[in-house]
Design goal:
The protein contains 15 helices and 16 strands. The chain is of the alpha+beta class. The chain is elongated.
């Protein structure tokens, strides 16, 4: 029997507000445990929540970028369940009246483009964090409530993803948009972006969905793909062996590459949702949406199209540069100073990104080679002051020292030799030293052109102008 994979994703994105969603406590990551808390986020009796307007602004930005309908009236609800890191005993979320619904994202996976529907996007608060001491024999956990009441957007897709690669492409695309909008830093290692995957299988051609299992808190795209692939295989083997898939929540163990049962999957009625009596319904008018729309940045797909259509970059270059908006900004700042987009693209992709990856991908903004440095280097190459090969040496020196390229060229004596008389003497010496090869080139063995140019470049320590050397060799030996 052929089986079809069905995946729906729930992505939780922590918003980049300075303060929490219902109180004035800081959202800064990495503070001492339980230092960013107050009566509101601790859920103390009598403390009343007040909605952070910036959270709504960010939600509206996401709505416009994902083609969602903005509800004119939405409402907060209490989602009741007990967790040690949820002091109130309930989470303030949205249920029957979410702020955003019925959007979509276009993705590309396995060589095909596909539109994936977004069921809803709602605002909610995060819970705290349990810390399990790595002490042999310890039977306790610690609770850090700094993250409690941190603002989240939960983005729920339609169950329209059909493979692990499609799910990864969708999650990557959503993260890219959130980071471009400046509403989430997308840092999965710190929990700023967490993905839950609802997975089921069904016989190919069947309309009815199979029983699903939910994989919780996947914190990397690689783990997302591995977890889905394993879970699909597990469910198919279970059914084919005569078993039944149980609706449950499972966790992925990346060390072993398997999913494990965590608890039975709750339904909405288990949470006993009801409207939060402490928060008024949220009313959003068209004027508010228009104000947010006027402040939207250029989104990644539009930027890719501009790079291709206006700057003339190949699709591969445009896609790679736009995957990180900091890299795209670096590229644009360099092009503003050196008007050769393809040359800039080549150096950003081939040199800047290589160095960043080698050093563990630090922030582009912290790169020792600034857009001004790179533009000045490309100016020197274009003017013929240095060769492209010498430019690589200059780039490495700039990365190591932060010095201006002109200073490095002067210190290292890398200026390109473009004086015809000086190069002609070097060409004559190489010809005299290689009479057999010279005669063969005169006789029509054109492949020897590269040999002579290489010998002259070696004799001049790579400083000779290669185009001029080529011309001089041709004048003297033909080819």
């Amino acid at each position: 029997m052929q089986w079809e994979t069905v995946v729906g994703l729930e992505v939780h994105a922590q918003l980049l507000t300075d303060t929490k969603i219902f109180c004035g406590c800081s959202t800064q990551f990495g503070a001492a445990p339980n230092s960013h808390v107050c009566p509101v986020c601790l859920g103390l009796p009598g403390a009343l929540p007040v909605l952070n307007e910036k959270v709504v602004e960010y939600a509206l930005k996401v709505a416009l970028a994902t083609h969602c309908r903005v509800a004119p009236v939405s409402r907060f609800a209490r989602k009741n369940y007990f967790y040690p890191d949820l002091p109130k005993g309930y989470q303030i979320s949205q249920f029957e009246l979410p702020i955003l619904e019925h959007g979509w994202l276009d993705i590309a996976a396995d060589g095909e483009e596909k539109r994936i529907g977004i069921t809803r996007i709602h605002m909610e608060e995060d819970a705290g964090k349990l810390i399990h001491p790595e002490v042999p024999g310890s039977n306790y956990s610690l609770v850090d409530l700094n993250r409690a009441c941190t603002p989240l957007l939960e983005v729920v897709s339609e169950p329209e993803l059909r493979s692990a690669r499609e799910a990864s492409a969708y999650a990557r695309k959503l993260r890219e948009i959130l980071v471009y909008l400046g509403v989430c830093d997308g840092n999965m290692n710190e929990g700023s972006l967490r993905v839950d995957a609802n997975i089921s299988v069904r016989p190919l051609g069947q309309v009815e969905l199979g029983t699903r299992a939910e994989l919780k808190n996947l914190n990397s795209f690689r783990f997302l793909e591995q977890a889905i692939a394993y879970e699909v295989e597990r469910q198919i083997e279970l059914i084919e062996d005569g078993g039944t898939v149980v609706q449950e929540t499972r966790l992925f163990d990346p060390a072993r590459g398997v999913t494990q049962s965590m608890r039975s999957k709750e339904e909405a009625h288990d949470y006993r949702y009801f409207p939060d009596p402490d928060l008024l319904p949220l009313v959003i008018d068209d004027a508010w949406v228009r104000r947010v729309q006027s402040d939207l940045p250029e989104l990644p797909d539009a930027k890719r199209a501009r790079y291709r259509d206006t700057l003339g970059l190949p699709a591969y270059d445009a896609d790679l540069l736009c995957q990180d908006h900091h890299v795209a900004l670096y590229f644009e700042q360099t092009v503003a100073l050196h008007d050769d987009p393809k040359a800039v693209s080549n150096w950003v992709m081939g040199h800047l990104l290589r160095e960043l990856n080698r050093e563990g991908a630090p922030a582009v903004a912290a790169a020792p080679v600034t857009p001004q440095h790179l533009a000045a280097l490309l100016d020197l190459i274009k003017a013929g002051t240095i060769s492209a090969n010498a430019g690589k040496e200059v780039f490495e020196a700039m990365w190591a020292t932060g010095k201006q390229p002109g200073v490095i060229v002067s210190e290292k004596g890398l200026a390109q030799i473009s004086d015809s008389a000086a190069l002609e003497a070097a060409v004559d010496q190489v010809i005299a030293a290689n009479p057999a090869e010279a005669e063969a080139l005169r006789g029509g063995k054109t492949k020897l052109m590269g040999f002579f140019v290489g010998q002259v470049m070696q004799a001049t320590r790579g400083q000779a102008n290669p185009q001029l050397v080529n011309r001089l060799v041709r004048e003297k030996l033909g080819g």
